[in-house]
Amino acid sequence: MTGAAGWVLQPAVLPWAALFLGLCIGSFLNVVIHRLPRMMEREWRAECAELAGQPAPVEDRYNLFLPRSVCPKCGHRITALENVPIASWLVLGGKCSACRTRISFKYPLVEALAGIGAAYAAWRFGASAAALGAALFVWFTIVLAFIDQETGLLPDALTLPLVWIGLLLNLNSSFVPIQDAVIGAVAGYLSLWLVYWAFKLLTGKEGMGYGDFKMNAAVGALLGWKMLPLVILLSSVVGLAFGAAQMLAARGRWEAGFRFHFGPYLAIAGIVALFWGEPIVRWYLQSL
Description:
The chain is mainly α and 288 residues long. It has helices at 3-8, 14-51, 87-91, 106-125, 129-151, 156-169, 178-203, 210-223, 228-249, 263-287.
C-alpha cells in the first residue's frame, strides 16, 4: 500500500496513529458515558407514559450529538479548543473556563485509557482485523465499566453489538476459531446466569444483573470459551480487592447503600485476558 495510508500503516507509525485516534475516540466515549443513561431514562419515561395511556412527556432533543456539551454548573458551551483530549483539561487546570467549577478527572482518564488501549492493540497485533477488534473491545468495555460503576446499568445498546463484533471478527479466526467463539458466547452468558440463579435461590436476593451475563457473553464471543475461566477468576479477584479497599475506606464496615457492580471488574479481566491471557494460562499450566 502506497501513499498516506501506507505510511500510517508502517509498524513504527501505526501505534502513534492509533494513540491519536484513541484519544479522540476517548473524548466521544465521555459523551456516551454521560448521555446514554439519560437517553435510556427518557426512553423509559416515554414507554411508561404509553403504557399508562398518557401522552409522552415533551422534552428537548437529546442524543449523543445534540445539544452541544456545556458545563453542568454554569451552562458555558464547551468550545473546540476546550475539548482537545487531555491537553484541554491540563491547560484549564481541571476547571471550567467560565465558572472555575472543577472538572472530574474521569474525563482525561477515559481519554488516556482509550488512547493507550488503541496504541497497544496496534503495537500488539499490527495492521490487522485483530488490532481493530481489540481497540473496539477496549473502547466498549471502558464505557460499560464507567456506566455500570455510576448507574448500575450495562446497556443492551453496548453489550449486544459487542457480542456480534466478537463473532464477526472470529469468522476469520482473528482471535479464536468461530466454533470456539460461538460456544464462548453461550458459555459466557450461561455461566453467570447459573451463578445468578444459584445465589437467588440460596439468598432470595439478586446478586447481579442480566447485563453482566451479556457482557460476559461478549467476552466469550471475542476470546472463546477456553479463556472464560481465567476471565471469571480474574474479575472475582479484582472485585474482591476493590471491595476490600472500600471496606478499609469505610473502616471495616460496608457503607450504607453499597452495591457491588461486577461490570468494571469484568472489563478489567477481559482486557487482561485479551492481551496477556495466553501467557498467563501457559504459566499456570507449567506451574502445575
